[in-house]
Design goal:
The chain has about 475 residues and is of the alpha/beta class. It starts with a strand and ends with a strand. The relative contact order is 0.09. The chain binds 6-phosphogluconic acid.
Length: about 475
């Protein structure tokens, strides 16, 4: 019998996705470059459903029902093009190739266009939720044509996470839209984690509490506005004790954060689109700073403040507020970036739907996303999430705490780039007049770059080196 759908690339994510499909009653064609991995999957999990194993790609493609649906789960990069080429050569018009890796959306756009020419559908899809999500229900963000969505959508929704019975999977938009949205998801993931790390660091340094005591604080926070997967697992990680040394686990891990690139891509794209995603940028740069041990060693003896601790009765609640406010800012920025890309590429993204499919399955899943969805339900053209009445109210309630947290951090010399830059963004956006007018004046002075006036139309230039009179440019 022919398989309903296939998965090639059976590392952890691919294997678990294949099992998820099989558990939902689909006959799943499975293939891996090293065949033993395929055999292992069938041997270990064959009882979970119907797997159709193949030793080579030709056999894999031949084992699929038409129109064929093949999911590639290989490490993003040059290898992906090779697998796509091999698959495409074996396929026929109307067949679908789905790339479920963390590919760059520009690669996805290029691949989609190339395969469309050959009558094939290419669907770049974000899949979030790690190992466990892939198996039990991830958040799925597919791009590609409306036609491919018709054939794939029901299966993807079937295996995705559900929140209140609603699948965490919608058709995101054409070509690279799915991978773009997954990229921003990961950027926000970076920012969420940085803010959590700053909260932990500041409280530990300022109050002298232990990681396991802080685990309790995060567990408490997880009952309120901050209720989310990342806060939940923060408590678990902080509580962990190293078996070998008996020390807190966070103290035996090398303090250099690594990355595979999606956060960096988010920032690169934001620079091109002109969207200030300062939260994601600071998180990405904080990882970069941590990764330069030679500079850190050279700077270790630089002067710092005399003050080390503070009287912290209110600090815990203040940090909770700062974390929530900064999180609102980071998400507002990420959603702005999706809106800008949607305009740039003509994707017609439904921002409320993106919040909906991130409510479950993915790494940034959180109660909070319900509120974002409600904000876009109330006003689909909201210029910034900060202006939504619910968020505006939350920011108003948090801002005094937020300022105290940044002040305290500065006073005792604990770096909080996430909190500080988010607050600067908030203060910048709410300003009546910004000093950008001075920047414009300077640009006009040295480069005759011209400026616009507040009281009339047109571009103007001052003859700075001559009579200093203004003339229309
Ligand atoms: C997810 C995760 C997943 C992966 C990140 C890690 O949504 O399931 O985001 O995609 O864990 O890409 O990224 P870094 O290695 O860059 O931190």
């Amino acid at each position: 019998d022919l398989a309903d759908i296939g998965v090639t690339g059976l590392a952890t994510m691919g294997r678990n996705l294949a099992r998820n499909l099989a558990r939902h009653g689909y006959a799943v064609a499975v293939h891996n470059r090293t065949h033993s991995r395929t055999q292992q999957l069938v041997k270990e999990f064959g009882g979970e459903g119907t797997f159709v194993p193949s030793e080579d790609l030709a056999g894999f493609v031949a084992s699929l029902k038409r129109p064929r649906r093949a999911i590639i789960m290989v490490k993003a990069g040059a290898g992906t093009d090779a697998v796509i080429d091999q698959l495409a050569a074996l396929m026929e018009p109307g067949d679908m190739i789905v790339d479920g890796g963390n590919a760059h959306y520009a690669d996805t756009r290029r691949r989609e266009a190339a395969l469309r020419e050959r009558g094939l559908h290419f669907v770049g899809t974000g899949i979030s939720g790690g190992e466990e999500g892939a198996l039990l229900g991830p958040s799925i963000m597919p791009g590609g044509s409306a036609e491919s969505w018709e054939a794939l959508g029901p299966i993807l929704q079937d295996i995705s996470a559900k929140v209140d019975g609603v699948p965490c999977c919608v058709h995101v938009g054409p070509d690279g839209a799915g991978h773009f949205v997954k990229m921003v998801h990961n950027g926000i993931e970076y920012s969420d984690m940085q803010l959590i790390a700053e909260s932990y660091d500041l409280l530990r340094q300022a109050l002298g509490v232990t990681p396991s005591e802080l685990a309790g604080v995060f567990r408490e926070w997880n009952k309120g506005d901050l209720d989310s997967y990342l806060i939940e697992i923060t408590a678990e990680v902080l509580e962990q004790v190293d078996a070998e040394t008996g020390r807190p686990f966070v103290d035996i891990v090398v303090d250099q954060a690594e990355q595979k690139g999606t956060g960096r891509w988010t920032v690169q794209s934001a620079l091109d689109l002109g969207v200030p995603v300062t939260g994601i940028a600071e998180a990405t740069f904080a990882r970069a700073l941590s990764g330069h041990p030679e500079q850190r060693a050279a700077a270790a003896s630089l002067a710092g403040p005399d003050l080390s601790g503070v009287d912290g009765r209110e600090l815990v609640e203040d940090v909770r507020q700062a974390l929530y406010a900064s999180k609102i800012v980071a998400y507002a920025q990420g959603f702005d970036q999706m809106a800008a890309a949607s305009r740039e590429y003509g994707w017609d993204l439904d921002l409320g739907a993106m919040a909906t499919i991130w409510r479950g399955g993915c790494i940034i899943r959180a109660k909070f996303l319900d509120r974002i969805r409600a904000a876009y339900d109330a006003d689909p053209h909201l210029p910034t999430l900060l202006a939504d009445p619910t968020f505006a109210g939350a920011l108003a309630a948090a801002q005094e705490s937020w300022r105290r947290v940044v002040t305290t951090a500065v006073r005792i010399g604990v770096p909080t780039p996430g909190f500080s830059s988010a607050l600067a963004y908030y203060d910048g956006l709410r300003r009546d007049r910004l000093p950008a007018s001075l920047v414009q004046g300077l640009r006009d002075y040295f480069g005759a770059h011209t400026y616009r006036r507040v009281d009339k139309e047109g571009a103007f230039h001052v003859d700075w080196s001559g009579d200093r009179a203004e003339r229309p440019a």
